[in-house]
Amino acid sequence: MRKRKIKSNDANDANDVNDAKIILSINYVNYHDGEKKAYQDFALSVLEKNKPSNVEVAVFAHEDDDVKVPASFRVFKTLKRNSKKIIGNNRPLPYIKDILSQCFKMECDIFGYINSDILITKNFFDCFDKKKIDAYMFMRYDISQVKDIGEFNKKSFKIKYKNHPGFDSFFFRKKWWELNKQRFHDNLILGEPEWDFYYYQRIYEGTREILIQRDLYHVFHRTIWTLESPGAINNRRINKSIT
């Protein structure tokens, strides 16, 4: 097995980060569950306040989606494929590569995706070394509830689950994605199990220059996953093709 570069935060990277144009994409979820909606709204308000000026937030949605995000975020209702219509999925979830492909067309040095209910600290972007890393993979801590952004930024919370499996965010250097995008299957559905495992596998096989960190936060709440939905079956089938 080839050794991968696991790079830690370094204050000396700050100058590189300030020079890099970063696109951070999300897929806004119009939750019917009021609690989940509140968690998402709080995460987006934290993102708006904590992101540096070189980071642009791009929200991708279908044409008929009701999207309510901070005014500074750019909304693109340009997603054409809907897994409910295409494979009869039980939710109208998009395909992750459709989002990444649109990010790639934007002016940037680095782009990526992050789940919309994830909390980001002010120094999260310090890890984006401009010159050396091809792909970035981020995991999360599940934390207790926080009252406001000040409490979150002071880390006045408890870690409830420190070893959450899977990844909530991937970023890529634009030049690397251009050379390697064909390695990633077109039909992995976002929000269903195992799409992140597939991306982890493909990235790990494709470059020696990887950053893997547990730098994200998420307010703990009970989540029910099903492996029997059409979307889950779709993703698992695609994963089996590489394992």
Number of helices: 8
From the 3D coordinates, which CATH architecture would you assign?
Answer: Alpha-Beta Complex
Order of secondary-structure elements: HEHEEHHEEHEEHHEH
Distance, first to last CA: 15 Å
Reported by name, the CATH topology is Spore Coat Polysaccharide Biosynthesis Protein SpsA, Chain A
Helix content: 25-40%
* Total beta strands: 8
Proportion of residues in β-strands: 15-25%
Largest sheet: 8 strands, mixed
Mean pLDDT value = 91
Q: What top-tier CATH class fits best?
A: Alpha Beta
Number of individual domains:
1
- Report low-confidence residues grouped into runs of 5 or more: 5-17
Shape field:
globular
Q: If you compute it from the alpha carbons, what radius of gyration comes out, rounded to the nearest whole angstrom?
A: 17 Å
Q: Helix/strand-derived class?
A: alpha/beta
Can you describe this structure?
The chain is an alpha/beta fold and 243 residues long. The chain has a single domain (11-240), classed as Spore Coat Polysaccharide Biosynthesis Protein SpsA, Chain A (Alpha-Beta Complex). The chain is built from 8 helices and 8 strands; from the N terminus they run αβαββααββαββααβα. It has helices at residues 14-19, 34-50, 83-87, 96-104, 149-153, 174-180, 195-206, 230-240; strands spanning 22-26, 55-62, 74-79, 110-114, 135-143, 159-161, 169-173, 210-219. Strands 1, 2, 3, 4, 5, 6, 7 and 8 form an 8-stranded mixed sheet that branches. The radius of gyration is 17 Å and the shape is globular.
Please tag this protein with its features.
globular; Spore Coat Polysaccharide Biosynthesis Protein SpsA, Chain A; 243 residues; alpha/beta
